[in-house]
Amino acid sequence: xxxxxxxxxxxxxxxxxxxxxxxxxxxxxxxxxxxxxxxxxxxxxxxxxxxxxxxxxxxxxxxxxxxxxxxxxxxxxxxxxxxxxxxxxxxxxxxxxxxxxxxxxxxxxxxxxxxxxxxxxxxxxxxxxxxxxxxxxxxxxxxxxxxxxxxxxxxxxxxxxxxxxxxxxxxxxxxxxxxxxxxxxxxxxxxxxxxxxxxxxxxxxxxxxxxxxxxxxxxxxxxxxxxxxxxxxxxxxxxxxxxxxxxxxxxxxxxxxxxxxxxxxxxxxxxxxxxxxxxxxxxxxxxxxxxxxxxxxxxxxxxxxxxxxxxxxxxxxxxxxxxxxxxxxxxxxxxxxxxxxxxxxxxxxxxxxxxxxxxxxxxxxxxxxxxxxxxxxxxxxxxxxxxxxxxxxxxxxxxxxxxxxxxxxxxxxxxxxxxxxxxxxxxxxxxxxxxxxxxxxxxxxxxxxxxxxxxxxxxxxxxxxxxxxxxxxxxxxxxxxxxxxxxxxxxxxxxxxxxxxxxxxxxxxxxxxxxxxxxxxxxxxxxxxxxxxxxxxxxxxxxxxxxxxxxxxxxxxxx
Length: 559
Description:
single chain; alpha/beta; 38% helix
């Protein structure tokens, strides 16, 4: 266990005659002399009214403040930024989504270190905010608790549950003539009836599962719907737990985030057909703990992990359905029973994971299967001359695992999107979108708009997409992303030309460009990166600092 400091960090701001101005500022906030003598706890959230994902976090943060006060601490709540994929999709704003993860982690670090807080409770509600908050917790290594804001409830349309993914794919169906404009309008109005994150096993719910699996979050928090009344009590408990850990009764983040627990997180993602974005975020969390963890580790764990949970987008069920049968613990108990989990990892309570799962019934047989859906996990890492470091493909729900096609090359997402909207492609094409990686974009845009159009047009496995950009957790079909090294760094994707043959083989774990080595050498000698408007502001800084997607697309050195 991590050695605790002899004195609370906050005492540096309040003790001594030269801290009289500091104490005056605190009294300006309404603190009493007795308050100033208590531990100071930061309560950080991405609360805002920008998207439904984060809309409920302010109320939850206030409940955590109550919990901190009840346990004898003084809470200081503050908000961080968020850039939601929902509103930045399909335009240049998406370049700011992934980098917002770093801004969140950096911002929380700056406030907590700058004000010398003693403990931390964090709240997040959408894709990049969850890993951003977890990265900050691990980096700071203070007594900490993470709380997810929860998923929205699905809508009901024509007798079935629907989500925003149905609307994205409905656009493709409309363009293909398989849905009317009035039907799409009905779907748009029905698909998101409450606040909360997207309710499938997309990125937010995947990373919420990771938070519980790593032990950074309270049990049951990942799958409880956003509008569930018990979330308020859970938020208060988070404040009390942070104070308990501060008193020495519980582990710190780096006691929880170990190589074994990171492998458990990968297993949970693989077993549920979770978001490919976990391939970025789990290595980035590991990086904050000084652990070398990459896409290769995800691949190794996924190969030995059975797909057990029948979750959307590849399967049938939503977060609320998993919650009803036991939540994350149902998946983890099934994995433990299958010998696919390290049971000796710590949890937030201080008990081991095996102890925490004792007595849990595990698989229900329907949402979480007793017999594997497939013997290996729902995410595959491909390697080959097209992506020497690796690329990610979600195979959960795929009907075919091998694809041979002909390259059609685009140097940006917009050019490909126009072709897809016009249905100006052919079955058997491999749509290659390059220069959209972390550095080349810059920002590594998410391409749900394009992938959902293809799926909605009925060609999700008849046309492939291959990119150094990334995908939504809602993406499904023959869609390969995160290719590393990226084209802007001279990766092989930069050398592909229209008409080249490409083979994607998920069973073999390969992605092959059928072009001879001599020809590739000639192309590399002639290669020039395409001219683009140079990035400015935070994009300029990000492009200069960001590393490979293979290692999590992080922007600073390991501690």
